[in-house]
Amino acid sequence: QVQLVESGGGLVQAGGSLRLSCAVSGRTFDIITMGWFRQSPGKEREFVAAIRWSGGTTYYANSVKGRFTISRDNAKNTVYLQMNSLKPEDTAVYYCAADREYSGTLYFSHIKYDYWGQGTQVTVSS
Hints:
The protein is mainly β and 126 residues long. Helices cover 0% and strands 51% of the residues. The protein is built from no helices and eleven strands. It has strands at residues 2-7, 10-13, 18-26, 33-39, 46-52, 58-60, 68-73, 78-83, 92-99, 115-116, 120-125. Strands 2, 4, 5, 6, 9, 10 and 11 form a seven-stranded mixed sheet that branches.
């Protein structure tokens, strides 16, 4: 089992920054990929970014590329999402997720992830 706990959400004005953290515990050696997803009311869960746990390769949704940065600290078992130049359309509940199997190019698919955190709310005011 893997446990994920997000933190760092909040209210910020457009153009501001937030850093989300995802603390990972349990069978961390099983993890292949860590991802961040977000979901706003009435919308499907949306891929934001992903990182390979061992190699560190990163992937981003086009909507956040150049503004968000995903990183991990394996010593602390923590994954981060640095969000800069935030926009009102970034408002959502943000979830971190862990995938135990190599999904190849399907890192963006939420159905491939096995473990999920409880989510943290990010609200960007205009």
